[in-house]
């Protein structure tokens, strides 16, 4: 299966499950169960055992990372450019959030043929940590997970596992 077939299949599945998973995430966030951290960690591990980002690349093709000024400076200097040259060519400020973002998609550094990031070692922290699954403030991220279900197969796999795991725990109580 090529990467766009893989992303299409996952997107269709996400749209089928979106309502159920979004409702689950809302409830999960409201209840904040004591076992939440453990199951979220386990769900992330399950997702990464199932999903290989190199067979997907959908975030690099369709979304934009947010850049910190230091990250722009670091990569611009590596490419022999000034901050302003780099910014003018590839970036913009999101009017709503004030974040520095790419000005187009796919990402200018994504190699569409190889399906790989061309600046992997110097990619922004936002790319390195996307889709931000297991982290200390994961209960604050659940709206983001719901909105990424159709964009990110790893998020979908993690949330499907999370929902089932919570269901099993509740059944045993
Ligand atoms: S910098 Fe690399 S990892 Fe980040 S969006 Fe661009 S291609 Fe993807
Ligand atoms: S993080 Fe998600 S959207 Fe990005 S390549 Fe991996 S599975 Fe695909």
Helix and strand composition category:
mainly alpha
Distance between the termini: 41 Å
Radius of gyration: 18 Å
Helix content range of the residues, please?
55-70%
Short characterization:
Helices cover 57% and strands 7% of the residues.
Characterise the protein shown here.
By secondary structure, this protein is mostly helical. 57% of the residues lie in helices and 7% in strands. It contains eight helices and five strands; from the N terminus they run αααβααββββααα. It has a three-stranded antiparallel β-sheet. A two-stranded antiparallel ribbon has the order 4-5. A hairpin with a 4-residue loop joins strand 4 and strand 5. Helix 1 packs antiparallel against helix 7 (142-148) and helix 2 crosses helix 8 (153-172). The protein is globular, with a radius of gyration of 18 Å. The protein starts with a helix and ends with a helix.
Structural features:
173 residues, mainly alpha, three-stranded antiparallel sheet, two-stranded antiparallel ribbon, 8 helices, 5 strands, globular, binds iron/sulfur cluster
């Amino acid at each position: 299966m090529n990467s766009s077939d893989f992303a299409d299949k996952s997107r269709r599945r996400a749209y089928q499950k979106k309502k159920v998973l979004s409702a689950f995430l809302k409830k999960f966030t409201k209840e904040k169960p004591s076992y939440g951290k453990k199951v979220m960690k386990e769900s992330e591990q399950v997702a990464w055992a199932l999903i290989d980002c190199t067979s997907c690349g959908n975030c690099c093709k369709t979304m934009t990372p947010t850049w910190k000024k230091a990250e722009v400076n670091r990569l611009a200097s590596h490419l022999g450019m000034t901050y302003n040259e780099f910014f003018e060519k590839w970036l913009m400020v999101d009017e709503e959030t004030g974040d520095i973002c790419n000005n187009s998609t796919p990402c200018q550094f994504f190699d569409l043929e190889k399906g790989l990031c061309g600046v992997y070692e110097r990619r922004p922290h936002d790319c390195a940590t996307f889709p931000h699954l297991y982290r200390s403030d994961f209960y604050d991220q659940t709206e983001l997970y719901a909105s990424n279900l159709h964009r990110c197969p790893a998020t979908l796999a993690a949330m499907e596992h999370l929902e089932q795991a919570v269901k099993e725990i509740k059944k045993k109580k």
